[in-house]
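FORM 12-B: Structure-to-Sequence Request
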């Protein structure tokens, strides 16, 4: 078979099993893999719950591809992931005589589809179920077909928190994700996106860090200024006092007469109770941030003495993934996805000084939004992903410099 670089661990396992003539092992690997079935997009749009069999031109086989073998997305062909067991149950006598796995590649196999074969497929599925697809919580890489170095890879790695937690290739720029219909459903359910225009709008908002709370950023900005002015750590009470003073001064200035092209404009002062309510809220937030940071240090998410500069990283990390999600759902093109990924990387480098600093900002934003100081599943998952990405020697954060990209 010669030398061949498998796109991912999935195809490497198939390659090695085929090379040694281990067809039971090959079927085990297939049973653990998603098998992507090509479909005409127009048909899927018309009937999203239906998956159709489109045989090869000679009708001898039905083509399926493993995740690492998927081609770059195009506007007309989409892919639906199915299990080996699904094919075993869906097949009937009128269907092609072969299941063509990754045809034309060194890992190709034309599996016969007799009733006995399909019983065997189900047995292999039963032996490995429910382990199916890429395991969440680990770093999964494309060794061909996805950048491993350079600016695009950096931008993709900015989205690695979500790629790792969701069980996806961190460096898949030609992105199919979990298949066309699932990617559309993800965007609809989680983001309310159902059109290309909606996807572009959300992506712009994330790249501009417009979705993180401005109150969170205000509190952190006050501390950044204090740390710069005093060249050192900022006591929490000093931070609270400075934030309160800033809010009160801002309210006073807003009530001062303003000279405009239409003359002098006088604004009514804001009610004291309203301003003091904001002060109390920001002071509570500062206490919450300080407690998260204390826990971050205890768990290795922050080094001793470090603190979070900004939570904009939460938007930039989501922007990197959003660029790809839109491509998988065919709301955007490959070129648009790449531009979004590059901009996410640039924005992250402008706001942070290292992968660790970026990750802490991402983690704090995610925890402030979801965790509510329960230190439960949201926190545990974010921490585990941070530790994986900062320690895995084969992962992107250990191999892509934060700055100095070629």
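FORM 12-B RESPONSE
SEQUENCE OUT:
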């Amino acid at each position: 078979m010669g030398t061949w670089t498998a796109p991912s661990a999935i195809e490497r396992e198939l390659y090695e099993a085929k090379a040694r003539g281990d067809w039971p092992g090959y079927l085990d690997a297939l049973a653990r893999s998603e098998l992507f079935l090509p479909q005409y997009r127009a048909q899927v749009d018309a009937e999203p719950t239906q998956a159709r069999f489109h045989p090869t031109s000679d009708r001898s086989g039905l083509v399926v591809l493993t995740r690492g073998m998927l081609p770059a997305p195009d506007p007309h062909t989409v892919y639906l992931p199915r299990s080996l067991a699904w094919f075993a149950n869906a097949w009937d006598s009128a269907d092609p005589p072969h299941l063509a796995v990754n045809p034309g590649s060194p890992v190709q196999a034309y599996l016969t589809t007799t009733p006995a074969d399909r019983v065997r497929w189900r047995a292999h599925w039963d032996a490995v179920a429910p382990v199916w697809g890429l395991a969440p919580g680990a770093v999964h890489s494309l060794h061909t077909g996805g950048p491993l170095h350079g600016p695009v890879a950096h931008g993709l790695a900015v989205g690695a928190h979500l790629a790792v937690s969701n069980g996806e290739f961190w460096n898949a720029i030609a992105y199919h994700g979990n298949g066309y219909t699932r990617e559309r459903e993800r965007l609809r359910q989680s983001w309310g996106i159902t059109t290309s225009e909606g996807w572009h709008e959300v992506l712009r908002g994330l790249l501009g860090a417009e979705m993180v709370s401005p109150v969170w950023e205000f509190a952190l900005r006050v501390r950044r200024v204090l740390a710069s002015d005093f060249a050192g750590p900022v006591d929490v009470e000093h931070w609270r006092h400075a934030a309160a003073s800033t809010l009160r001064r801002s309210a006073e200035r807003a009530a001062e007469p303003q000279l405009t092209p239409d003359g002098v404009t006088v604004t009514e002062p804001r009610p004291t109770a309203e301003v003091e309510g904001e002060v109390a809220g920001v002071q509570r937030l500062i206490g919450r941030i300080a407690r998260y940071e204390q826990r971050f240090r205890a768990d290795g998410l922050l080094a001793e003495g470090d603190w979070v500069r900004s939570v904009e990283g939460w938007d930039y990390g989501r922007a990197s993934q959003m660029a790809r999600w839109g491509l998988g759902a065919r709301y955007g093109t490959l070129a648009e996805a790449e531009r979004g990924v590059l901009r996410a990387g640039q924005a992250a480098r402008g706001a942070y000084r290292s992968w660790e600093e970026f990750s802490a900002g991402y983690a704090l934003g995610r925890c402030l939004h979801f965790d509510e100081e329960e230190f439960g599943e949201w926190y545990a998952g974010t921490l585990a992903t941070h530790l994986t990405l900062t320690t895995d020697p084969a992962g992107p954060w250990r191999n892509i410099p934060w700055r100095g990209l070629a």
